[in-house]
## 1
Amino acid sequence: AAPQARTATGADTGADPHVRTQQGAHLTTATGVKLRDTDHSLKAGSRGPTLLQDHHLREKITHFDHERIPERVVHARGSGAHGYFEAYGTAESICHAAVFEKGETTPVFVRFSTVLGNRGSMDTARDTRGFATKFYTREGNWDLVANNIPVFFIQDGIKFPDIIHAGKPHPDREIPQAQSAHDTFWDFVSLHTEAQHHTIWNMSDRGIPRSYRMMEGFGVHTFRLVNAEGVTSLVKFHWKPKLGVHSLTWEEAQMLGGVDPDFHRRDLADAIESGAFPEWELGVQVFEDNPEQVFEGIDLLDPTKIVPEELAPVQPIGRLVLNKNTTNFFAETEQIAFHAGHLVPGIDVTDDPLLQTRLFSYVDTQLSRLGGPNYNQLPINRPHTEVNDMFRDGFHQHAVHSGVAPYKPNTLDGGCPFAAGADLSEEQTKAFTDAAVRVAESTKVRENPVSYDDHYSQTRQFWLSMSPVEKEHIIRAYTFELGKCYEQAIKERQLQALANIDPVLCAEVATGLGLPAPEPTVPLTDLAPSPALSQLTGGPWPG
Ligand code: HEM
């Protein structure tokens, strides 16, 4: 649809009790007093000065002065939509979560984003894309906070501030705003070579998607599912777009960044507005929950590794449809608070050290971004189920809590399910239970397992899986981005990493940069190419 086809207000006149149309017959103050005039301040005579006693003037200006909240520290630039998830029932044997019961339809909100640019940055920058889904399940909210790249830059969350500081604009001049083309980024990834796998995905066409509607999504970490018998499985989540995976060319991305910085935002909203509802299938790769948490030699707790789909096929478990645009960007897209730790009974985490850090980080950042501990009361964050927590008070508290005993068990406020010997109803037995996973006897250390040491085999496998045109794009992307570095030593160190990935890739980029190509310093491992990694030879679903 043409952008002009968009309705004037986008207003939702439906039954949502949270929507305030602000179109009543009378304008009022925030405290409900009818106003006569909102265009003239109260002055001593028509030529002033303006009087401090003008409450409406002060209230109007003060509220405006406080309209902005901090943008997200990462993923600041985003765009969202409402929809639903419909389960096929195929996951019932491995997970007892209601969201996966056959035919269960769960409302969702999805927010897509870039990672590094600020709120006003262009949509088509070369970057990773966020793909975060909040499922308002009947057992509470589950957030699948995913990216469009299946691996991450780092293996341990303690380095997250470092990679983000390296990727954000230089602190002296705040340049560049939304690209990986600079010294600190390449300095980091050439020193912390675990980042090479994620980086080659960024340099491939996956770094410049054609549309949010045409992106895969990946949970990255391995998660643990629990079935009705209490048996656990390890899984990796995949979103597969019905429209297939498509990218822009670099030239298109650059031009669109200037001509229409809102390209992806507009594309998503226009598609939904015109009834071409974007759709994905959710699938899982399933692994036995063995004590090693290793599959075919691949450490499932290392977030810089994939499991090729040829080794573990992605099995479809449901579909996602986005069918409603936001009514108000701030209330919904900006105020939504995703958290990798928002889990529901049947879905649990693993010990992946990146995931473990995320479990702390999201709530912490939202405390300052959303102004205190009560942001789950915001309409977009409220679960579509009963909330009966023990929380009290705090900034922006909207509930009027009754009762005199804000602790449990107690003998003052009536029955309490937590009292010793209390009868647990059927509903309560379905409550969240942490999977009873054995923690190996161990010593406190600050080190990675040796399985985390191989930074190049899968990076090379990705390269070897590409079609000739995709390889050509990757060479050009490295050459352009590295060409923007001022420091020659950084270019040389990154060329060394490229030599360890593939000598041809290294030689081509070195020629482009006018530098000599170094020899590999590690043995090159030839893992079998994985056709599913290629946008041209893979497909939304194998076959
Ligand atoms: C957003 C931290 C790794 C996906 C965020 C935010 C923080 C954060 C602080 C901003 C949240 C907000 O303001 O509401 C971290 C840390 C990580 C990490 C500390 C590693 C230790 C990852 C990984 C993924 C991911 C591995 C993908 C699997 C996202 C997405 C968003 C986000 C999609 C945007 C959510 C939204 O649209 O509101 N992350 N992150 N992050 N993160 Fe992470």
Note: The first helix runs from residue 55 to 65.
## 2
Amino acid sequence: MSTDALLDALHERLGGRGLLRDPADMARYSVDWAGERLGQPLAVARPASTAEVSATVMLCREHGVAMTPQGGHSGLVAGALPAEDGAELVISLERMDRVREIDPINFSMVVDAGCILDNVKQAATEHDCDFPLSLGAQGSCQIGGNIATNAGGLNVLRYGMMRELVLGLEVVLPDGRIWHGLKALHKDNRGYPLQQLLLGSEGTLGIVTAAVLKLSPRQTQSRTALLGLPSVEAVIALYGLARRDCSDLLSAFELIPRRCIELAMEATPTLGDPLDDAYPWYVLMEVAASGPLDLGAMLEHLLEQGMERELVLDGALAASDAQAQQLWQFRESMLEGQRRRGEHLRTDIAMPISAIPTFVERASTAIMAASPDCEIIAYGHVGDGNLHFNILPPAAMADADKHAHLHELEALLFEVVDEVGGSISAEHGIGRTKQDAYLARLSPLERELAGGIKSLFDPAHALNPGRILPRP
Ligand code: FAD
């Protein structure tokens, strides 16, 4: 059957707003966040309900057409980007953006998968609750995408990743059937945890259409500090101290190298140098709580301890919310500063927290030996053992050579990750860009089990084919 017949049937089922076929209308669904990779959708379906998602999937199945679920399109491993051959139908969840229900007593809320994370957070706040997932892309990423990638972010050390923040799911399976798993239970030990298979499956096992999210009591106060430190060893020692000294109220502990402070100031010229002197490493940390606790005194005590032990050389403690926001602005602007440097290697690796100093030392030595003119930018969520060890190619290198060069450096870097018992993907997933490195590290048994799971859910490999596992 021709794809025209499918598109006509989809148009009839979804209506004019529900199906985009014009290349100009499809442009924004066809390019990744960094603007570095292009895909070519057959068309873009924009269902407005779970029933419409199911109907879309059933029609695709009938016509033998592959599908790519797409959320906010902020993923960094090309998972939501349709293949270049124009054979995949993009299914965008963007019209399914309703907060269905909030239960502040049960600390839960039910949302459509297309809800933008920022809007979910705002809705929770209005009911005196927090939805604690926070990340740089929260103004555009969607809950469905967060679930599909098992997203983490700034507050994982306190609240966990999406796996710990989802109570129930509604999913359209690759054959179009709807799995109704929207339970709002904080405890449920019935049989296999099916929803955990969907979390982090990157749209390869089903299309998430709604979720029950776990909320936390709203934090009514927080204190933020930016500290200057002499070494990564000092950062890790301070982290141990902070976890113990702050009654486990630490909600963020970000490692930032000096170069990132400079990139942030370049990207946002209104930002001045945050401390009187420049330091090789910085920590941006936050403690948050509700109730009558003196968080300021807690942080001051920690800083005194840190200075006495010569872990902290200087620090700025935000005295107001506005000042705290300004300190966080460094974290946000440094990403924009990197983006402006064009194509570079972005990684999201993980390792035991205690291995971070050894890793940074070994990886920096290996990369600089292989490419002395490149620039290393290592920052991350230290409390989760998660580093973005990014590499900017030599400024003088021709654009055409950068991709292959960065790929070689990535392979070197991943060898050091293996040496310290780490993971090549802590947050972004495998998608298409990390597939070779992922497969190279799978044991035959793991590969057999992973292949069995995919075949059980999607024997035809119709949903996100070629992501995580290769096409058969
Ligand atoms: P998309 O990019 O649209 O899709 C990602 C994957 O999920 C694709 O494989 C897609 O097919 C699948 N998918 C999307 N929606 C659905 C659905 N409804 N059902 C099934 N599959 C679906 N990630 C972190 O974990 N932590 C961070 O701190 C972080 N910071 C970031 C900062 C910036 C500036 C940027 C650009 C990205 C960052 N990311 C981070 C990565 C990204 O934001 C997350 O992976 C996010 O969860 C992706 O959500 P999305 O809606 O944009 O998904």
Note: Residues 399-419 form the longest helix (21 residues).
## 3
Amino acid sequence: EAIEKGGYDHFMLKEIFEQPRSIADSMRGRVNSEEGTLQLGGLSDYMDKLAEAKRIIIVGCGTSWHAGLVAEYVFEELARIPVEVEYASEFRYRNPIINPDDFVIAISQSGETADTLAAIQLAKSKGATIFGVCNVVGSSIARETHAGAYTHAGPEIGVASTKAFTAQVTVLTQMAIAIAHKRGSITEELYQQLLLDLSAIPQKVGQVLKAADRIKEIAYIFTYARNFIYLGRGLNFPVALEGALKLKEISYIHAEGYPAAEMKHGPIALIDEDMPVVFIATKDSSYEKIVSNIQEVKARKGRVIAIVTEGDELIPNMVDFVIEVPETHDILIPLLSSIPLQLLSYYVAVMRGRNVDQPRNLAKSVTVE
Ligand code: AGP
């Protein structure tokens, strides 16, 4: 087992550090930024139909559902197709309205999650076209779908999903870019720029990982926190949900993720000097709004850890701790901003003596309801 962990203490840490490679693998043979092309072989037969799509429904559970929420923003922004994201477990039991011209994307690392499988069987019986975004080749969900794109992240052993999440987001982003290009909803110039920015992500993830020691120090300070709040806006809202889920599942600390603007509708009552608040506050279109959300928390003495864009000179002066991520195109930010949150939850859990790779009560794939 020590050999399989490749010198890391846990599979989870190894998988976090594998992300420059796993993200590159999820683009290999697909994105060619030098030639300015993007090909998703599995979807090529459907591209004409997808260009006319009226609606996309995304289903998944847990972290895969979070990847779906990121995809909702990206598809709507680039391809201008309405997207609904559903928990597979809710979708399958609420007599959903599914039309034969709907496209359903099922996201699943294992490809074996019972609720996700049942959701696609339901959608299929109503005539929808189903695509899979799975990591495990030949899995039940991969076989049940009409077509799809594998994430190619390699085996993920740690129960807490890390590299599978970033690979899912990378594949879904490629789908959105390809469909947007086909539909003509983005300019050729933006298309080329996105391919270049996407190709630069693995190297930028490598840069984020260099902050591991600093994140470890921050984790040490908050080891005994009883609660955590994660706040983000726009594309960083699903990142906040994912950061909170990661912390809960491996450290057993209660954590909640919220869209930052929702704070004043309730959660702000929780803020005091004992409440760590993680803001995902990169420089994007919601930057100024999130700066004022940080002020609201600091005014109530909350302790703030902020994920910011390299070179930010404002937020570091307002908060207790900052972790920088490199600049990228707005729609790619989750691929960078999610990484420090994985490391933060990992180090907190290790310092609390938790069984990081196999947390209590959890299974890697949930094959029963
Ligand atoms: C993530 O860290 C979880 N362990 C869990 O939420 C997981 O993402 C969920 O069970 C879905 O699994 P799948 O991607 O294999 O379908």
Note: The radius of gyration is 20 Å.
